[in-house]
Write a structure and sequence with these properties.
mainly alpha; MetI-like fold; 236 residues; transmembrane; transmembrane helix
């Protein structure tokens, strides 16, 4: 217990002092996860909206696939991205393996289905409320999608935050395609795994504290958006 208490004390000191290695790891984690979240929203939100308003043969199968893909095993995604980006893979000529870009690609693949499925559910409920009004205005499908995305923006912000929370906590895929290279691809989750295996608990605990703080911040952000939207009378 004394060793644990000492490690915790050192971890708090690292956080409060703004340790350079700690800041570098946290900054890379945020850059990778925020980039992946933005890409996932660009891809997933319109996809979710199109499925929400669409009525087509096989829609049930699409919904099953979207919901199933929310549980994609991270290590499988990491393996598939690795195979495509490795020198013998079809995209090996790009030289992206063991770079932050590869990690962004892996995280984007992981969280896009989450964003799309959550957005689909929220926007389908919204569309059912406004369907008659949209028909009376003779809106095109893309105009309907745009209107839904705007009117449901508060809900979609919470969807984006949920995607970011999933991305920043990811370890399996990013360690496969990033390699956990010091000063290049080492993010919070992979650094925690490495430092724990080495018995260096101070940095691992410091990163864990930051990761927990981010988790609380994301949840507080979601709750704040819900309260704000409710106060404005918007859809949540």
């Amino acid at each position: 217990m004394q060793d644990l208490a000492e490690s915790l004390s050192l971890a708090i000191a690292l956080v409060l002092s703004g340790d350079a290695d700690l800041i570098e790891i946290v900054a890379l984690s945020l850059r990778v996860s925020l980039s992946a979240t933005m890409l996932a929203c660009v891809l997933g939100l319109p996809l979710g909206a199109l499925v929400a308003i669409g009525r087509f043969p096989g829609r049930g199968a699409v919904l099953v696939a979207m919901n199933a893909l929310m549980g994609l095993p991270p290590v499988v995604v990491g393996l598939l991205v690795y195979l495509h980006l490795s020198r013998s893979g079809p995209l090996g000529f790009l030289g992206l393996l063991y770079t932050p870009t590869a990690m962004i690609i892996a995280q984007t693949i992981l969280i896009t289905p989450i964003v799309a499925a959550l957005a689909r559910q929220a926007l389908e409920d919204l569309h059912s409320e406004y369907a008659e009004q949209f028909r009376s205005l003779c809106l095109t499908r893309m105009q309907t999608v745009g209107a839904l995305l705007w009117d449901g923006r508060f809900t979609l912000l919470t969807v984006g935050l949920a995607g970011f929370g999933r991305a920043v906590a990811e370890v399996g895929a990013v360690i496969i395609v990033g390699g956990n290279i010091d000063h290049l691809t080492r993010v919070m989750t992979t650094a925690i795994a490495l430092e724990t295996s080495k018995g260096e608990l101070a940095l691992a605990l410091a990163l864990g504290i930051v990761l927990l703080a981010l988790s609380f911040a994301v949840n507080a952000g979601v709750q704040g958006l819900r309260v704000s939207a409710a106060a404005r009378g918007a859809h949540v």
